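Lecture notes, part 5. Sequence design as translation. It can be helpful to think of inverse folding as translation between two languages: the language of shapes and the language of residues. The source text, in structure tokens, appears below.
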């Protein structure tokens, strides 16, 4: 039995998969590495040695504060003898990027304070929090008491610290405690288990990657972290990748190609995950069902594909008990990440091909800023409002941030006629709503088919936001902190044209962003463009035919009438005419041609034209207005009979566009609900 336990203990350090290739890098691949290194030296600078020493000194001070807190609880709270309090011990473990040596400038440091059993969660959020708040070195403290895993975040001498709490089963913490020994988990609650998972996983990754491959692992990890942050994919609590997710994904590629060079590993990263058969899990080692020597009563819930069938992107932690570190990934963030991984593969493949053919390396293309703010027609600005630089505001903000990913899901935005994915952008945007407000944006496009076929022509974003905020009051899962007056959450709808200019700064400003939007074809619905093209050619053909034979025009056929019932709203096409047609089109002629096509399509029914002369006179009038610089496209092109729907890309139902039942112009009403078809009866 003892022999079997030892074998099982050793097996946890054995990779789950055999390498796919152990080939050494070629000279050509080494030359590609040099170009990647040159880029990283300039664009991905590391923390200086002096700063790393300073950060280590900060950690030493935090550890000292923690040890003194343990002794305070023992002596002052529980009245234990002083010698017992001193023997109780306690330890501070480091996990994440700092422990691995990634050395990102200004990165957070993840820590876990391992406390004796007599220290409780209540002690952590009272005495330790009070001690930290009393210190001038501590700024921006947030204590998330309602979180399953106890955590206090703060800046200590300008170093950002995430401090988790782990309450051990014994009243004495040995100085030489082995964090990787699975036996230390015996008798622990689930929250402590999850807290210890961070440093345990970090240490396991180092062992599973191997000392020889580890330097290349770090290079690729730095690239993937930068890529994820630049492309709007970094933020575990928001449904995207966090540090531990990136660590596992890169480590897995290093296991499969242990002798490969960094640029090849980077290429393999994108190719492998582009082709991966999700939800097949990513595992670095064989999943242990229970640790050696544990009793049946000590066994934990271990991740398995059978019992966690709903997990979309399982990235399994290598330490017992195995967990899915990407549990927060939902259908929307998953789809966004798949698209970005595919793009990453195509970009890296092209960069390597160009380098091989002696073209200048363009690694910067992989790290281009996200196109989130030019990609969609509609955006929701989700404002988390605080009352000042105080603990109540920071706690409220932290709570809402941990929940906001749910707004995109059922039973909220996912129930509306909106195309998937509904993308939550995981980077904080500052707006002018309040000095103490935080803003996250959600981007989406409407599902035109669902809107056209739906009996309810309303998009109830206000209702979704209301019910989402109501969930904060849930007695079990709601906010448990002190929600003082002024703490708020609200949603504001914006179209692309109404976005704050600051959001375009990473793309080079609003003008550059708009040009990129046009260049990449965002805001254009292909189905609508196809129907518009058919509409234009059909209508012009009938007008020209009528002009040539001098006969009277006849009522359009049923099929023509159906086609003419299409109204287009695209940011790059005809439905941007009110604001952009006369300013953006390259020539007066193109302005006139655009108006002429629209006029031709509605001339038959909208004006009720009975002969060719009427049509020709109207077209001449339109031409004169266009060349005269008429800026109101609504009156110039539609002459009060046709009003353009503003802000909504929509195809109207058949036979409802023209005549007395034409929809009237409207804008989204307050509280971000708007009617799709608000008709005059």
């Amino acid at each position: 039995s003892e022999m079997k336990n030892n074998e099982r203990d050793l097996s946890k350090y054995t990779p789950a998969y055999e390498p796919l290739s152990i080939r050494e890098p070629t000279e050509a691949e080494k030359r590609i590495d040099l170009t990647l290194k040159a880029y990283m030296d300039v664009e991905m600078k590391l923390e200086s040695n002096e700063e790393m020493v300073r950060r280590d000194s900060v950690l030493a001070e935090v550890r000292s504060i923690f040890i003194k807190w343990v002794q305070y609880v023992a002596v002052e709270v529980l009245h234990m003898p002083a010698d017992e309090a001193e023997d109780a011990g306690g330890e501070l473990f480091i996990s994440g990027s700092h422990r691995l040596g990634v050395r990102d400038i200004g990165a957070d440091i993840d820590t876990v304070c391992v406390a004796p059993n007599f220290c409780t969660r209540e002690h952590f959020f009272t005495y330790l929090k009070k001690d930290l708040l009393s210190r001038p070195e501590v700024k921006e403290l947030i204590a998330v008491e309602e979180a399953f895993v106890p955590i206090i975040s703060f800046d200590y001498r300008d170093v950002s610290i995430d401090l988790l709490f782990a309450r051990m089963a014994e009243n004495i913490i040995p100085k030489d405690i082995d964090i990787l020994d699975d036996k230390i988990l015996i008798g622990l609650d689930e929250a402590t288990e999850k807290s210890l998972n961070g440093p345990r996983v970090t240490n396991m990754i180092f062992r599973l990657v191997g000392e020889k491959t580890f330097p290349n692992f770090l290079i690729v990890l730095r690239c993937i972290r930068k890529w994820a942050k630049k492309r709007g994919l970094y933020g575990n609590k928001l449904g995207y990748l966090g540090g531990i997710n990136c660590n596992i994904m890169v480590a897995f590629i290093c296991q499969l190609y242990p002798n490969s060079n960094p640029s090849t590993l980077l290429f393999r990263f994108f190719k492998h995950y582009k082709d991966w058969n999700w939800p097949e899990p990513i595992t670095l080692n064989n999943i242990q069902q229970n640790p050696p020597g544990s009793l049946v009563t000590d066994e934990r819930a271990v991740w398995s594909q059978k019992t966690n069938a709903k997990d979309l992107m399982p990235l399994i932690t290598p330490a017992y008990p195995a967990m899915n570190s990407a549990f927060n990934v939902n259908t929307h963030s998953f789809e966004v990440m798949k698209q970005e991984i595919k793009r990453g593969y195509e970009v890296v493949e092209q960069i390597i091909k160009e380098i091989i053919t002696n073209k200048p390396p363009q690694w910067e293309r992989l790290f281009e800023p996200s196109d989130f703010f030019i990609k969609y027609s509609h955006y929701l600005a989700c404002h988390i409002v605080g009352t000042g630089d105080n603990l109540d505001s920071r706690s409220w903000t932290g709570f809402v941030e941990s929940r906001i990913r749910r707004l995109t899901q059922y039973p909220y935005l996912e129930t509306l006629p909106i195309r998937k994915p509904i993308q939550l952008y995981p980077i904080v945007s500052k707006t002018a709503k309040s000095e103490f407000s935080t803003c996250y944006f959600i981007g989406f496009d409407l599902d035109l088919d669902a809107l056209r076929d739906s009996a309810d022509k309303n998009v109830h974003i206000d209702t979704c936001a209301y019910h989402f905020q109501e969930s904060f009051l849930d007695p079990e899962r709601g906010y448990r902190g002190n929600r003082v007056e002024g703490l708020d959450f609200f949603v504001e709808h914006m179209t692309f044209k109404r976005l704050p200019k600051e959001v375009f700064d990473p793309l080079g400003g609003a003008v550059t962003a708009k040009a990129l939007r046009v260049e990449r074809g965002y805001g254009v619905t292909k189905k609508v463009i196809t129907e518009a093209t058919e509409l234009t050619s059909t209508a012009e053909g009938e007008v020209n035919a009528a002009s040539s034979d001098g006969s009277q025009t006849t009522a359009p056929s049923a099929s023509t009438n159906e086609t003419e019932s299409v109204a287009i709203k695209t940011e790059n096409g005809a439905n941007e005419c009110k604001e952009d047609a006369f300013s953006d089109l390259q020539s007066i002629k193109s302005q006139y041609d655009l108006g002429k096509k629209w006029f031709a399509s509605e001339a038959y029914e909208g004006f009720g034209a009975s002969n060719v002369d009427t049509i020709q006179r109207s077209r001449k009038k339109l031409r004169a207005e266009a060349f005269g610089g008429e800026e109101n496209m609504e009156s110039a092109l539609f002459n009060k009979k046709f009003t353009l729907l503003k802000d909504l890309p929509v195809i109207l139902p058949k036979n409802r566009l023209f005549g007395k039942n034409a929809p009237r112009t409207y804008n989204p009403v307050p509280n971000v609900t708007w009617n799709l078809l608000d008709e005059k009866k």
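The translated text above is only one of many valid answers, since several sequences can fold into similar shapes. The first strand starts at residue 91 and ends at 95.
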